[in-house]
Write a structure and sequence with these properties.
This protein is mainly beta. Helices cover 10% and strands 33% of the residues. The protein has one domain: SH3 type barrels.
């Protein structure tokens, strides 16, 4: 087994790289809550993958993401987590706080920090481009994220 390093992070390179998905172009999306402790990624689970920075300049970071839907082609849609508190709005220099859903703390963050889910940026993941090291989010918190995705993108 190859030791983990940022250079060989799952989802960083090649055909299984994590990419940004355009919500209006992904077609019909059915979010679901279906975590199963079977070693495979499932909607409702938090997994780790390489997430490219929004500048798309080759840089990025290995980070937790919440899987929200399966796509017909075998890929998954996910939204990234952050432990940085969102800004209060455009005047705060960052994305509007309404784009972030607070989910509290959980085993995905070893330091026990609160986390937020960024619903403004949707990612497409491949099963081979993820590490399954985190956990399943509970249904109540998943439904908060799901509701915000429905409001924003009209997903079912």
């Amino acid at each position: 087994m190859t030791a983990y390093s940022p250079e060989n992070a799952p989802g960083r390179h090649g055909p299984t790289a994590t990419v940004e998905a355009t919500p209006g172009e992904v077609g019909r999306v059915r979010t679901e809550y279906s975590p199963a402790h079977d070693g495979d990624p499932d909607p409702g689970e938090i997994v780790w993958t390489w997430v490219p920075y929004e500048e798309n300049d080759g840089r990025g970071k290995d980070r937790p993401v919440l899987v929200v839907a399966r796509e017909a082609g075998g890929t998954f849609l996910a939204v990234q987590l952050s432990s940085k508190r969102p800004s209060a709005g455009p005047a705060g220099g960052g994305r509007d706080a309404r784009e972030w859903v607070p989910i509290g703390s959980g085993p995905w963050d070893r330091a026990g920090r609160d986390s937020w889910v960024d619903v403004a940026r949707v990612l497409r993941l491949h099963e081979e481009g993820m590490r399954r090291e985190a956990c399943a989010l509970d249904r109540m918190r998943f439904n908060l994220v799901r509701q915000r995705l429905r409001e924003r993108y009209g997903w079912s």
